[in-house]
Amino acid sequence: MKSLPVKDPGRPDHRSPTRYLAWLTRAQARSVAAGAGLGVLWMLSQALMPAVIGRAIDQGVAAKDTGALAAWSAVLLGLGAVQTVSGVTRHRLAVYNWLSAAYRTVQVVTRQSTRLGGTLPKRLSAGEVVSVGISDVAHIGDALDIVSRGSGAVVAVVAVAGIMLYTSPQLGLVVLVGVPLILLAAAPLLRPYHRREERHRELVGELNTHATDLVTGLRVLRGVGGERLFADRYRAESQRVRRAGVATARAESLLSGAEVLLPGLLVAVVTWVGARFAADGAITVGQLVSFYAYAVFLIGPLKTFGEAAGKITKAHVSAGRVVRLLDIEPELPETGTARPDGPAPLVDLESGLVVRPGRLTAIAAADPRDAQAIADRLGRYADGDVDFGGVPLRDVADVRRRVLVAVNEDRLFSGPLTASLAPPGGADGETMAGALRTACAEDIVASVGADAHVAEAGREFSGGQRQRLRLARALAADPEVLVLVEPTSAVDAHTEARIAGRLGPARRGRTTVVCTTSPLVLDRADHVAFVADGRVVAEGAHRDLLDAESRYAAVVTRGEAAAQP
């Protein structure tokens, strides 16, 4: 049993959808080649059966030769055994190829989504990403799955044409001319199908995005009475998707109808011509039976051609969506190579903020957007003049590992609770227990269990519980620099006081920045910087700033009032 997914999916060729599908094929070339070989063996064993049956009739039944009949029957039995074994093995490899292509695509898409970080939602809607993960990977897998049967179909048609040319050149020419004509007749149906399929996928992606937004903001919509309005809009958009789906289905049905009608016409022609030749004595009764069996057999390979065209068309559309995602570059790619010796000071030249290493620094801003902008620059989610140990932050290697920015928009991952809170590579029990205690999240774990399954985005938890769990996850990562943006805004005053008292000792020796206006947190900070109009205008201890800076006092008083029940 082979393990899926693979550890390293490789570097995809995303210059075009065709190149991406070719890269997938090369990445699993051995299994694809084995599947194609078994597909050829499976289909070829079926293609030889009518010829064997014809020989058995002519040399055994018509000639009344029991030995010849027994010999050809044994050959037929052997072909049946080969067909059975090769068919089962081919199917297993086809399923493996499907799964491998799908999982490999999921891996490269997930890796790219992680690499893009905050760039992804700015460049691609959530619905499009969901569509890639749900439907597009399946269609891409179908393209690899059809290779085995498609290869067998090609070889089978060539073999049948060769046998018929050898037996009756006229019938062989009918097949050789008829098959290309069928393919040419079906080709014009592929372009509108491709176009409509692509349009349908785009609309589905948009609808998924709106559905995600609706679910996320459902409570707000109900509170402002907008639920009905947005439900009507969603209904109208879903009807657009339905109409596009019907148009796609109409094009697909025409293609499916052609898969049956056109091969059926060829079968009728071959049968009619063969019957005329048998009546004129140009071919034997056994050959007539063989030709009729071939005419019926050809329906399968020719229909496989149509199925392959449909699946490859869908896969090409899906690969195009994957390629568009893979083409996106991070707004601020990590290209730095410098490695400052830690612990090092972090300086935001734009605001004048200096974050001393190993201390808990609080940023209180008159406008919360200023604090968020500073946090974005410190984590290099926005470009700016920031120095880390005297080195421009853009030149520092592994910024994402050294500086972690945690905001309230971060999502909880689904899966076992404590496992979903652990950083990449995991965390020991002591580290996780310490993080949970600092974030006052021990009661959450105790109430639901450490291995309790977390639903998507942690919907089963309240806003305050989700905030504490996000804080625990950030603390468990134990980065060199931790930047927290309003980490206690959704918890009650008693819990906030406990978190404020535990945060400094838990992060002792590490650099911590907290953007907040909570007096409970500010009072426990080693250093407080007050920001107004994007600049640090005052700094010092919390109590000193209360007496010395009236604007600071006004901001903190509002924060304190908001914290009261």
Automatic annotation (TrEMBL):
<feature type="transmembrane region" description="Helical">
    <location>
        <begin position="32"/>
        <end position="57"/>
    </location>
</feature>
<feature type="transmembrane region" description="Helical">
    <location>
        <begin position="260"/>
        <end position="279"/>
    </location>
</feature>
<dbReference type="InterPro" id="IPR017871">
    <property type="entry name" value="ABC_transporter-like_CS"/>
</dbReference>
<keyword id="KW-1133">Transmembrane helix</keyword>
<keyword id="KW-0812">Transmembrane</keyword>
<feature type="transmembrane region" description="Helical">
    <location>
        <begin position="285"/>
        <end position="302"/>
    </location>
</feature>
<dbReference type="InterPro" id="IPR039421">
    <property type="entry name" value="Type_1_exporter"/>
</dbReference>
<dbReference type="InterPro" id="IPR027417">
    <property type="entry name" value="P-loop_NTPase"/>
</dbReference>
<feature type="transmembrane region" description="Helical">
    <location>
        <begin position="171"/>
        <end position="190"/>
    </location>
</feature>
<feature type="domain" description="ABC transporter">
    <location>
        <begin position="323"/>
        <end position="558"/>
    </location>
</feature>
<protein>
    <submittedName>
        <fullName>ABC transporter transmembrane domain-containing protein</fullName>
    </submittedName>
</protein>
<dbReference type="Pfam" id="PF00664">
    <property type="entry name" value="ABC_membrane"/>
</dbReference>
<dbReference type="Pfam" id="PF00005">
    <property type="entry name" value="ABC_tran"/>
</dbReference>
<dbReference type="InterPro" id="IPR003439">
    <property type="entry name" value="ABC_transporter-like_ATP-bd"/>
</dbReference>
<feature type="transmembrane region" description="Helical">
    <location>
        <begin position="69"/>
        <end position="88"/>
    </location>
</feature>
<feature type="domain" description="ABC transmembrane type-1">
    <location>
        <begin position="33"/>
        <end position="314"/>
    </location>
</feature>
<keyword id="KW-0472">Membrane</keyword>
<dbReference type="InterPro" id="IPR036640">
    <property type="entry name" value="ABC1_TM_sf"/>
</dbReference>
<feature type="transmembrane region" description="Helical">
    <location>
        <begin position="146"/>
        <end position="165"/>
    </location>
</feature>
<dbReference type="InterPro" id="IPR011527">
    <property type="entry name" value="ABC1_TM_dom"/>
</dbReference>
